[in-house]
Write a structure and sequence with these properties.
The protein is mostly beta strands and 64 residues long. The protein is built from 1 helix and 5 strands. The strands form 2 sheets. A 3-stranded antiparallel sheet has the order 3-4-5, with no helix packed on it. Strands 1-2 form a two-stranded antiparallel sheet. The mean pLDDT is 76.
């Protein structure tokens, strides 16, 4: 999606109305997803850690 490997398997937002999912699951071994918290109105996703655990991260504005 972004031609930047740091986004591989991640979800990112343009700060306006577009969310981008870099979903090359064959390369990242991750199925990216978007989580919306109805109480806070915040978006987040998950990133797999080196120890195979999952870390939730907020989806914030990033330049594409």
């Amino acid at each position: 999606m972004s031609n930047d490997n740091s986004y591989l398997g991640m979800v990112f937002w343009d700060g306006q109305s577009h969310f981008f999912i870099d979903g090359d699951t064959m390369e990242s071994n991750v199925v990216p997803l978007i989580k919306f918290d109805t109480c806070t109105g915040n978006y987040s996703s998950y990133k797999k850690q080196m120890d195979d655990s999952w870390m939730e991260y907020p989806i914030t504005k990033r330049d594409v």
